[in-house]
Amino acid sequence: MANRVVVTGMGVVSPLGNEIETLWKNLLAGKSGVRLIDRFDTEEYSSKIAGLIDEFSVEGYIDPKDARRMDLFVQYGLVASCKALQDAKLTIDEKNAHRVGVVVGSGIGGMQTLCDQHSNLVEKGPRRISPLFIPMMIPNILAGQISIYTGAKGPNFCVVTACATATHSIGEAFKTIQRGQADVIITGGAEAPVIPLGVGGFTAMKALSTRNDEPQRASRPFDKDRDGFVIGEGAGILVLEEIEHAKKRGAVIYGELVGYGASGDAYHITAPEDNGSGAVRAMGAAIKDAGISVEDVGYINAHGTSTELNDVIETRAIKALFGSHAKKLLINSTKSMTGHLLGAAGGVEGIITLLSLRNGRFHQTLNLDHPDEECDLNYLSGKNAEADITYGLSNSFGFGGHNGVLLFKRYDE
Question: What's the rounded Cα separation, in Å, for the pair 300 and 389?
């Protein structure tokens, strides 16, 4: 029988706050973390807005000298990991280090470092490329740095699946503990793409909202006036733990992770298939993994990107899998407030799914003023909801047709 896995720690760096309590408060207040980009000149960019981190500091978590040798995505992820470990009240020492793992990814990795070192190459020649270039840029270095900083010596690897990165990371960490290969795993994702090349790349794809005159109203999942997603940054980290290990040390248990589903669209590099079959299979796999029925699920934290294709196709997928039960589901999109955190999104949204089930409170989908005719489910438009719900899904779908879904259960002792 597979081990049961619970969540005992959470850490976040997000456009809605860098503490779990702040994030939760701002979500319930319907606050948006989207604003005009002020880090670089956006005059020539059609999209000038992002979900941005305010008041971020490594103080108390990372040695400033070390931080200078880390790309910003690593700083975000490492700080969130330290916060999650503190929240879990877990001490890693010689006795348990080999049973504590790290599975943390980034969809893009150190893009700013890549740009900086390319400039050195072009302007100053190859001898001026930093010897730290490669170890600062590669996406897996975050998992490595977390291990180095915390002393975790268990399974350590990185998942890279674009916008599904954190969700797949958490799912693979879940399975690693279920198999008995670790007692505890630090898991999630981090991203720092709000730089000229990052914003420029997504703008070139016509993927981003250009509602620059109303930044806080730009991310509008399931709304007929949506015009693209809002790029965002941050990190979401969970501490997963085998349940008996957690109980033995008296840990606070936030909830249980009971199902994980993954699938590939085999269709297109950026667009999901019209019928949402990949999402259907991923959600169905998570539910089957948990050994429950679709009627047992009461809540979905949707991928909900605010793009023309995703919102309609995700809705079709939910209807196809859940049938008549789809109308009874509470569904929301955290991205309506945070923007799209790319490879970090599933980590932050997994945390929010847990908090929602634990507290029986579910935040509204912001800016859903005029629902798309095809998006006709209960997306909590303009209002929060209170409900006693046991099971909730967290959906993530990435470029390349990578689909990941987590199924959380409210923990009742």
Answer: 11
Fold of 5-248: Peroxisomal Thiolase; Chain A, domain 1 (3.40.47)
- Catalytic residue, candidates 168, 340, 363, 402: 340
Q: What does the buried/exposed string (b/e) look like for 144-166 if buried means 16 or more CB atoms within 10 Å of the residue's CB? A: bbbbebbebbbbbbbbbbbbbbb
Q: Is 168 a catalytic residue?
A: no
Quickly count helices (H) and strands (E) in the chain: 13, 14
Question: Could you read off the pLDDT of 226-280 as tens digits, one per residue?
Answer: 999 999 999 999 999 999 999 999 999 999 999 999 999 999 999 999 999 999 9
Give which of 185, 360, 180, 162 is closest to 271, Cα–Cα.
162
SS3 category, 392: strand
Strand partners, 104: 188
Which one of 82, 158, 163, 375 is the catalytic residue? Answer: 163
Q: Tokens for 394, please give them.
A: 């967290």
Q: What distance in Å separates the CA atoms of residue 75 and residue 83, rounded to the nearest whole number?
A: 12
Which CATH fold topology does 261-409 show? Peroxisomal Thiolase; Chain A, domain 1 (3.40.47)
Structure-derived torsion over alpha carbons of residues 402, 403, 404, 410, reported in degrees to the nearest 10 = 160
Catalytic annotation on 375? no
- Residue by residue, DSSP assigns 165-185 as HHHHHHHHHHHHHHTTS-SEE
Sequence ranges of the chain with CATH classification 3.40.47.10: 5-248, 261-409
Please return the burial class of 181, using the count of CB atoms within 10 Å of its CB with bins 0-12, 13-18 and 19+: middle
Which two three-digit tokens encode residue 136? 């600062």
User: Residues 287, 261: contact at Cβ < 8 Å?
Assistant: yes
pLDDT digits (tens, 9 = 90+) for 5-34: 999 999 999 999 999 999 999 999 999 999
C-beta separation of 39 from 199 below 8 A: no
DSSP secondary structure of 263-287:
EE--S-SSPPPTT-HHHHHHHHHHH
Residue 1 pLDDT grade (very low, low, confident, very high; cuts 50, 70, 90): confident
Q: Find the catalytic residue in 168, 245, 303, 402.
A: 303
Check if 325 is active-site: no
How many beta carbons lie within 10 A of that of residue 209, not counting itself? 26
